Amino acid sequence: MISALSASENEHRDILSKLDSFNPLLILLNVSGMLPPLRIYSSRWKTNLYNVFSGVTFLSYIPLIVMQIMGIFEYSGNLLLVTVIIFQLAAYFDGMVTMAYFIYHRKRLLNTFYSVENKFNPFMQKVGNAQTQKKIILGNKKFERIISFVAMAAFLADMCTWCVLPSIVRYLAYFNEEEGTADVEVKQHLEYFILVMWLPQKASEFPCYEILYIFQFFSVWGVVSNYAAGKLIIVSLYYHLSSHFRILASAIEDIDVLCNNNTTKDECNTFSEEMTLNTSANDTNVSLVKFTVEDLRRHFSVTQPENISDKDYTFPSECTKIFSREDVLSTAPEHRSEVTYLTHCIKFHQVLLKFCVEVNDFLSNILLFDLIIFQILMCLPPLQLILGQNVSMVKFVSSIVDTGIWPLLICFWGEDLSQQSLSVQKAAYGCSWYNRSQRLKKLLQFIIMRTKKPVRMTAGKFYYISLETFADKNLRHNWNESVTCIRDHLDT
Asked: What is the pTM of this model?
């Protein structure tokens, strides 16, 4: 019964029931054992059964890892087989760590999904064109369906190439063998098994082969699904964040349409009641001003959202002119609508930037581990090719595709997120600011100064995620990029 669920499980169920854009991704998370489906929370025994499934999936990694390490010693004289085993071990460690990380942070993962989908709605209702926002949100859902379909297709393809084909080869060979030739050395029939690892004597005979095969099949199911699900989480969050920057940029561009200088007197009075500008006369005499959210609320009389903390923001003296008493008092009533509108855009931008920092903190560590594993996975297949790949060409091709496509997608959408954060600056400069009030020009200057540095996601807080770092082979340049990233992080 639902009442028998714990408080945390009830909270997870409530969040899952409110998610819409991430539904295709949730299917892969359900299959991988990271996240129970919504229907599982209908009763206690279903949740316990799913937890058993997750636990068995995770624990199945351990004996397979041990047997693969034993296989390294078993086949130490064959460098090709050793490289194959190391490739498998790297994939196993990646799937194991990814699963453990997101299960441990399951509540944070759900809250992040929920925040991406709902946190910015109060700001979106105050700014921008509803049709444009709807179009971008529908594009998010379409992208989520497509990328999740691609991930599921890759998952099924890997299961076929790694798990189904070896059994077909095994039974075809069995029916073609003559009587008395079935008992041969195991090393000659590694293509019958899913993984290259240490195997007992007569492993290819019934029922030892069937038991080993089922065991390997279940563990590879967990590795491949968790590998794909973990990367899909990162790609999806990056894409949705970049979409919110597109919404914000379009809202700033729409100021020419939504806030014109022909605003009626009644509309101006309404905005005047919503926003009363006050400031102190000595603000412009301070060379470096620190102001809090309370200061912004005092200047703009805008209701403070609960999700904005009172963190201090520091700006150079040029920005303090935005809040000068003369500019505020000189703002004509017919211009207050556009000032209020742009103030909401600034609030939207601040909350979005803060949330990007939270997402980066959440994903940075696991992304660093993924990139290290990617380096190993991308080096081994070419080495196998040089040594004379002869274990399984189909597995070899699927390995090349898997190890290349996911880091490319992560870096591509990390780059897109950075570019979309810069589009806010372009939108601020691209609107008809020259036809606007002096007050609005200075607010736009405030936005442009705040967006000089793009939003950049990192791995381990020191490695920028971008197409440049994905394609760059210059280690010295990567080191300089890492040092710059660490310096920026310490400055903030």
From this structure: 0.78
